[in-house]
Amino acid sequence: MNNAEQIENLQALAEVARQREQPRRGERLASVRVSPGAYLAAASVLTFSSALLIRSQQDLYALVALSVAWLLLPVLAFADRIEFDGEFLTRRGPVPFIQRLISGRRKELSVAELEKVDTHALRTLRRRGRVRYRYRTQIIGRGAEFVFASGGRRYREMARHLFPRIEPAKLDLKTLELRDYLCEPKMLDDELEGLHLGSIDVLNEAGMEFKLGGRKREGSRDVPVTGVTLLDNERAVLLGSLGNKLRIAGRFAEAREAFRRALTALPTDARLIFDFARLLRSQASSMSDAKLLARSQAALRLSARRAGDQPDLLALVGESFLEWGDTTRAQSSFRKAIELDPANFRARMGLASLALREGKLAHVIHQYRDAARAGFEKALANYARREADYYARLNDDDVYLVSELRRINWLQHTLRLRRLTARVTNVSILAALIAPYVDESLVALCWSLATSSLVAWILSLFGIQILSKRRRPQPQD
């Protein structure tokens, strides 16, 4: 081989190496703003600082602080985005760029590296039988974390493009529901109009009593009631899907009617009963109705009995039982799922969570190690193995156990301190604004108290960031 050929081969190898380092990149499919909580906190602190500067007659500095708070920070928050191109999640914007310059690494994750996706729902408004939800999704993997919240079309686009590409075992139950049933409001209205459920006023006045019945035959999953045709079955499936979409959208009255009609045709369908139980639970929570809560629990128990040969559904039922605090039935559902499918990752993780609640570290380690063997994706196996190693170290090293318990105790105190200082700060600022009309001597005291509590609140935020991370065990002699 002559020198020219060697140079060409080396150039080709260098090009391959560059492509491996930067494997991309496809067209951007979705983009959503990060949760603006950090920017709002910074803006609040700067606004408070500007008020103190005005009291100190530092008008120029006060103007600068106020301009940064309400002109610069909103622009930075709007530009700070999470993008998805079909393979990678990447955080882009001025602040991530500065962080990249400091740390030397881009904040990004490939779909294969994701380990866990959790979504939490916050009820924000209830009106005429409808509830407005705000969803907050947290994605964790390979030491990185992405958090974004719903608020419009961008979130729905991200959910539509990202969630179906993630292995279902990595998604919690709420994320699975968003993956399958979150849709555009106009499309939902069109689908609802085509099925003619009735007006919202009529549905709100209708009673909530609906008795689940039917008896399941051996060897059959979905057995319709006598006289129900195949066309009715297909319509029932569509109604069940529509009911879930309406539930995710917070339109409970219409969702209840859709499920009522679907269960009339398919009264023994375990998945339909499970979804109906989730609807009753959401409705009971929004209305603070104990009777409706009891009905939702009864429906979930019925679903667990009817799902005897469906390990994936049994794992979801167990996850719901665990979420609702019924640990005994949750354990029963998880164990049934494992008997049917020993490699069911979700059921293994559920049993590990149950064992952790009961303080049985040996069982926690066992379940996580079994989950690591059942994890058919590398990220899942790594996550379960890392959890198993952590709890094994807690079980074997008393010194490490004491240090971790101390850290968790400090973290709990710091979280309480953050809530307390936030309330004291708000009350002190309000009192400082009212004090001039009552007694001028109280103004300085109120501002001093507000300043001290704000400083304590800021320190608690840093403390939470530090204490949230697990400590690395010290090497044993």
For the largest beta-sheet, the strand count, sense and barrel status come to:
4 strands, antiparallel
DSSP summary: helix tally: 19
CA-atom Rg in angstroms: 27 Å
Which homologous superfamily in CATH is the superfamily of the largest domain? Tetratricopeptide repeat domain
Give helix and strand order, one letter per element, not per position: HEHHEEHEEEEHHHHHHHHHHHHHHH
Mind explaining what this structure looks like?
- The chain is an alpha+beta fold.
- The protein has four domains: 30-39 and 73-172; 40-72; 185-397, Serine Threonine Protein Phosphatase 5, Tetratricopeptide repeat (Alpha Horseshoe); 399-467.
- The protein contains 19 helices and seven strands.
- It has helices at 3-21, 37-55, 59-79, 94-103, 153-162, 173-181, 185-195, 200-205, 230-248, 252-265, 270-287, 290-306, 311-323, 327-340, 345-357, 361-374, 378-396, 398-434, 441-467, and strands at residues 30-33, 81-84, 88-92, 108-110, 116-127, 130-141, 144-149.
- A four-stranded antiparallel sheet has the order 1-2-3-4.
- A hairpin with a 3-residue loop joins strand 2 (81-84) and strand 3 (88-92).
- Helix 7 (185-195) runs antiparallel to helix 9 (230-248), helix 9 packs parallel to helix 11 (270-287) and helix 17 (378-396) crosses helix 18 (398-434).
- The longest helix has 37 residues, at 398-434.
- The protein is globular, with a radius of gyration of 27 Å.
Which helices and strands appear, and what pairs or packs with what?
Layout lengths: L2 H19 L8 E4 L3 H19 L3 H21 L1 E4 L3 E5 L1 H10 L4 E3 L5 E12 L2 E12 L2 E6 L3 H10 L10 H9 L3 H11 L4 H6 L24 H19 L3 H14 L4 H18 L2 H17 L4 H13 L3 H14 L4 H13 L3 H14 L3 H19 L1 H37 L6 H27 L10
Antiparallel strand pairs: 1-2, 2-3, 3-4, 5-6, 6-7
